[in-house]
Amino acid sequence: MKKLPKIYEIPEKLFWLFVYAPIIAISWRFLNQDLTNWDIGGHYLAAKQFRDSIWPFFSGWNLNNLSGFPQGYFYPSLLHWLAGGLGKLFDLTLAFKLLITLSIWIFPLSIQFLAQSLNFSRFQQQLTVLWATALIFIPKGMMGGDLLGTFTIGLVSQQFAIPILFFYLGFLAQTLNEKPRAWIWAGYLGGLLMLSHAFMFIAGMIGAISLIAFTWKKNKKLYPFKNLFLHGLILLAVSSIWLFPYLRFHSLQTGRPIYLFASHFFSSVNRWGEISMYLFGGISLYSVYKLSREKIELAKPILYVSGFFIFF
User: Fold this and answer.
1) Is 0.90 topped by the overall pTM?
2) Residue 154 DSSP code
């Protein structure tokens, strides 16, 4: 692949200063705001419930809201569980804000880790991180995946899951490249991804299928099939603390068994807009493979990030 002149590569320290200056500024504002905006109040109350009566368990009965309801059965609650546990050690509000802030700070590092795992050049890694960081500052309405959705709408569990998603895909890419023990980390992170946000887990599975398909297309065989299978077992074991109760009691939430709910989900006209976005994201990822074969250095960073952000 033809490399661009070295002048286009930003010095490392200057690069990270450029990335983190706006992130630190907006994080400081979040640390000094209240937790009453839209959904964020409900997330905070869930963390409070875990601190007061549920922790260390991952689910339980909430006596304080909605005349009582099962907390943690139908919504993945890793963020609430962690905040509730930390809230036993120090102020719950501070613990809750620090977890969200930490996820935002880790986000650029997770992007770079994925880019490294995909064997991007240093220039491509920098471009990928800059492009991904810029996208979280661009409002996309009520869909989430940006700082407006996190701080104003309160989609904090989604934000918490985003860096886990990219670390998971990075270790999965390393697994496909047969790096030792990468499948173990991929399994644990995949399980944590499901425990953090169900729809981000769906995005992760689409990204995983895309990576596996690209590897098969390139190599014509999947060498680490055993490690992929073992990674799936670890993922299932880690996520079972939420997944199995959810499947068992799903009908209590929707009024229908899980297989009938899935049928209704895919037959709903309103869902086709969401499904079309996922399909567009998959097409974008496939175009990365096609353009990378044409040796277009700018194509991989831009299209990878654009494709994944469709899933947010």
Assistant:
1) no
2) -
